[in-house]
Specification:
Blueprint lengths: L4 H10 L7 H9 L12 H8 L7 H4 L7 H12 L8 H14 L8 E3 L4 E2 H6 L2 E3 H15 L14 H5 L9 E3 L20 H16 L7 H11 L24 E5 L13 E5 L2 H5 L5 H22 L10 H11 L23 H28 L4 H17 L10 H17 L4 H14 L11
Parallel strand pairs: 3-4
Antiparallel strand pairs: 1-2, 5-6
Helix pairs in contact: 1-6, 5-8, 14-15, 14-18, 15-18, 16-17, 17-18
């Protein structure tokens, strides 16, 4: 094992909610010491760092050695902890300790935590952690003295199973909340009692440690941002739009985090948290049956899965001209005078689409809009250089990536309809929800026009 930036970030990546993208997490970490180095939109750069294919930019490595440790700790508490799943962090800490222990190039007296000044030997004995301090300290170490590509031969061992292997030992770790430490410690001594100086100092230390030993809880406002992003900004109970958060700011719509605990002993956390309309839907939870709560939690997990599926296609970025195409489609979609298309003139998809509902839906849309969409694409190819064929090939690549993940999801009984929905979500996530209906139309157009589902189809 090798402690490097890639292994450090891979552990954090495996301890984040599914809805938080790895490029956001990685980019936000690097901004802690290099505020002008923003790679949160650079899929390839982040991927290369996480697999130890490349080293950190000098913009980071030049500044990390002289960065103010306490300022970095404060930054991590404010900006990094909200991007992590608090329920996984004890296992994450044990994984990082294991990596440090197995890195034979780190000698016992080397200071590895550059925020607290703890050496490798100290960390291996440590059981109580201020999460923001520990993570900030390890980041400063990996960014200051470690060649990231040195971890290339080891990084493949750090997988979800590796993190999960520490779950049974999570009670070995205590997470402390540094903000709860009192500024002064008051001791009441009975008049006339004799207490030596060493005894007072020991009591003060013990008192401070007890005050710090509080389980870290993710702030509810950050939980709300995560849940709303996951559910596409909708109430999981009624489906009403609650607003999509922008750059981790809270949406203005009235909504709240509700915990769907199924027993009196179950703790509240990300796994049983949902975002609901403030008032009506939130109050309904009080009278919900266990089965109704389970159904709502199943919807939550499905939303998280959808985001995870879409994350598979992060490296695929559609040409910016597609927004112009969708805007044109959006303008004409409800025009009554559109020239209809004879189904016989369209590519037959009987063998390509197996779900009857999906086939009928695409056919109904294309009878009205196929000719117009084809005209729009043809005209914009000339006017703005929009490459329909390239766009179709990119969408095909996204479809293959998404379909490959369905093999271990037997509960999805309508895989083609599911993938079509994901393609629409993928496209609308880039161009904006205001064009979602147009995204639906152009995906149907591509199904008719080219080979999206592994059957030979002639271009019409």
């Amino acid at each position: 094992m090798k402690l490097c930036f890639g292994s450090f970030m891979t552990v954090l990546k495996l301890c984040k909610p599914k809805s938080v993208k790895q490029k956001l997490l990685c980019g936000t970490v690097l901004l802690s010491v290099a505020p002008l180095y923003d790679i949160r939109n650079e899929d390839g750069t982040v991927h290369d760092l996480l697999i130890c294919r490349s080293n950190l930019s000098p913009q980071v490595t030049d500044k990390a050695p002289t960065a103010d440790a306490q300022e970095t700790v404060g930054y991590f508490k404010k900006n990094i902890l909200p991007l992590l799943d608090a329920n996984k962090m004890k296992s994450g800490i044990l994984a990082l300790k294991d990596i440090i222990a197995k890195d034979n190039e780190i000698k016992p007296d080397v200071v590895v935590d550059r925020a607290s000044g703890k050496t490798k030997a100290d960390i291996l004995k440590q059981t109580s952690f201020a999460l923001e301090e520990f993570l900030a300290g390890l980041f400063l170490y990996t960014a200051s003295v470690v060649n990231n590509t040195a971890g290339k031969s080891f990084i493949g061992n750090i997988k979800a199973e590796y993190i999960e292997s520490f779950d049974d030992r999570s009670d070995e770790i205590a997470l402390v909340n540094t903000s709860s430490k009192p500024t002064t410690t008051a001791l009441t001594v009975q008049e006339g009692a004799q207490i030596d100086v060493v005894g007072v100092e020991t009591l003060i230390t013990i008192s401070d440690q007890i005050a710090k030993l509080m389980v870290f809880e993710k702030p509810e406002k950050d939980m709300l941002v995560t849940l709303l992003t996951e559910s596409n900004g909708k109430c999981l109970n009624c489906g009403n739009a609650l607003g999509i958060p922008v750059r981790n700011k809270l949406p203005s719509s009235k909504c709240e985090v509700v915990y769907l605990t199924l027993s009196a002993t179950e703790s509240q956390g990300y796994e049983n948290a949902v975002a609901l309309c403030e008032g009506a839907c939130a109050k309904e939870v009080e009278v919900m049956s266990v089965d109704e709560k389970k159904a709502l939690l199943a919807s939550k997990r499905r939303c998280a899965e959808i985001q995870a599926f879409i994350e598979r296609t992060e490296s695929i970025r559609f040409p910016k001209e597609i927004e112009t195409v969708l805007r044109e489609i959006h303008k004409v979609k409800n025009l009554s005078e559109l020239e209809k298309t004879d189904l016989k003139d369209l590519v037959e998809i009987e063998k390509k689409i197996h779900e009857p509902y999906l086939k009928d839906k695409i056919d109904a849309s294309m009878v009205r809009l196929y000719k117009k969409v084809k005209d729009i694409c043809g005209r914009l190819e000339q006017e703005i250089g929009f490459d329909t064929q390239m766009f179709g090939e990119m969408m095909k690549s996204a479809q293959i990536l998404l379909s490959s993940g369905l093999k271990d999801k037997p509960e999805i009984t309508d895989p083609q309809e599911f993938v079509i929905g994901l393609l629409v979500e993928k496209l609308s996530s880039q161009v904006g929800q205001q064009h979602k209906d147009a995204c639906d139309i152009i995906i149907g157009y591509l199904v008719k026009r080219c080979d999206l589902f592994n059957e030979n189809a002639k271009q019409s």
